[in-house]
């Protein structure tokens, strides 16, 4: 039987996104996951425009095809 569960969503705050040309940044998880390390994201994972340093976001964890050093944030969306 197929597993049709939605991926887990995490909340966090963008702590590093120096400039859009850099193409990546880091999210600090908040809430019950506040003890997690900062999570890397690539600009291709952004599902919302206007995400800047300090933005509150929700995201999923997964593997980026070019990242072999652990999990990354995927489907990063601005919290409205």
Can you offer a commentary on this structure?
With 80 residues, the chain is mainly β. The chain has strands spanning 10-16, 24-29, 39-42, 56-62, 72-78. The mean pLDDT is 86.
Mean pLDDT: 86
Number of helices: 0
* Secondary structure: helix percent: under 10%
Q: Report the principal-axis shape.
A: globular
Structural class: mainly beta
**What gap, in angstroms, lies between the N and C termini?**
35 Å
How are the secondary structure elements laid out?
Elements: E1 10-16, E2 24-29, E3 39-42, E4 56-62, E5 72-78
Antiparallel strand pairs: 1-2, 1-4, 2-3, 4-5
Describe the structure in brief:
The protein has 80 residues and is an all-beta fold. It is globular and about 40 Å long.
Give descriptors for this structure:
80 residues; mainly beta; OB fold (Dihydrolipoamide Acetyltransferase, E2P); 5-stranded antiparallel beta sheet
